[in-house]
Design goal:
0% strand; 317 residues; single chain; globular
Length: 317
């Protein structure tokens, strides 16, 4: 998942917001291989981290896994960023708290989804949130095509009525998608108010504090088991810390539109992770469904980029 706690989404700003480092000058053909590889590595890390989280759920439960992921990621980011606590306005703190709440809700809903349905379909349904935001923000007639493709993919994914998917799992994934779209909005606002990744670190801490009681209520002392905690720490590194670092490095040399299109591949990577780690196979119609949603996401990103170029060239990323 985009990161789920940290990764940007198609047509969305990076976690650090508009102020995050990123080049708009575009690297050369050979130079672009490095940052593209970093982004793809980040995507693989997120989705295989999600697959590892599913294997951990029998030990700690979905809420317990989310608690461990947010807690460890918050500790690592706070130590690495050492954000300044003084000098921020009430509006700044309101924004970062809202960002943290959104992040916690997004992770909680997504992990409840993957506890019930395969990873590939879960990510496919989740990505509909940022896709809808991108379509609405662009306000162009051609986006009806992308929306139609996405809806067709969802129809196929649900077997013509979600008879092949657990209803609660699908609902949790769609809820996570709505939170992902909200995450994009507050990520940008936080990036404008806090330098570097300070806002992300503080928001992650807020999410961890809010979610820890839920994890303790579900799993209790199981969270303190060394093996469980170690696996939870691995999930945090794979799903939050590592992908955020890779994406931050990539955005220094990779144009944001290229980055967004690469992120559209996440449902396919999730399906691969589910197959390799969890032995979750997909029916041919489900593969077609995921492909349609990926195509819709890429199309929406390209439409939004084209609209931006027609209006004015970007000087930031």
């Amino acid at each position: 998942m985009l990161t789920a706690a940290s990764a940007p989404t198609p047509g969305a700003p990076a976690p650090g917001g508009p102020g995050a480092p990123g080049g708009s000058d575009g690297p050369g053909r050979l130079g672009s291989f490095g940052p593209v590889g970093l982004v793809l590595a980040g995507c693989v890390s997120v989705q295989f981290g999600g697959a590892l989280a599913v294997t951990l759920m029998p030990r700690a439960g979905a809420l317990g896994v989310v608690s461990l992921r947010l807690l460890v990621a918050a500790i690592v980011l706070l130590v690495a960023c050492r954000p300044r606590l003084r000098g921020h306005s009430r509006a700044d703190w309101g924004t970062v708290v809202a960002f943290g709440v959104t992040m916690a809700a997004m992770n909680g809903l997504f992990y409840e989804a993957v506890a019930r349905i395969p990873l590939g379909p879960a990510v496919t349904l989740e990505v509909l949130g940022p896709l809808a935001l991108s379509v609405v923000a662009s306000r162009r007639a051609v986006n009806a095509v992308w929306a139609g493709l996405a809806l067709g993919g969802v129809f196929l994914l649900g077997g013509g009525g979600f008879g092949s998917l657990d209803g609660a799992g699908a609902a949790f994934a769609l809820g996570a998608g709505a939170m992902w779209a909200t995450y994009i909005v507050f990520s940008a606002r936080t990036g404008r108010r806090f330098p570097q990744a300070d806002g992300l670190a503080l928001a992650m801490a807020v999410g961890a504090i809010l979610f820890l009681p839920l994890g303790i209520a579900e799993s209790g002392t199981k969270l303190a088991d060394p093996t469980t905690f170690g696996l939870g720490a691995a999930v945090a590194v794979l799903s939050s810390v590592l992908p955020y670092t890779l994406e931050l490095l990539a955005l220094r040399r990779l144009p944001a539109p290229t980055f967004a299109i690469l992120m559209s591949l996440e449902p396919a990577i999730a399906a691969l992770a589910g197959f390799l780690i969890l032995s979750q196979s997909l029916a041919p119609l489900e593969i077609v469904a995921i492909a349609l949603v990926i195509a819709a996401s890429m199309g929406a990103v390209r439409t939004q980029v084209g609209r931006g170029k027609a209006a004015a060239p970007r000087t930031d990323s």
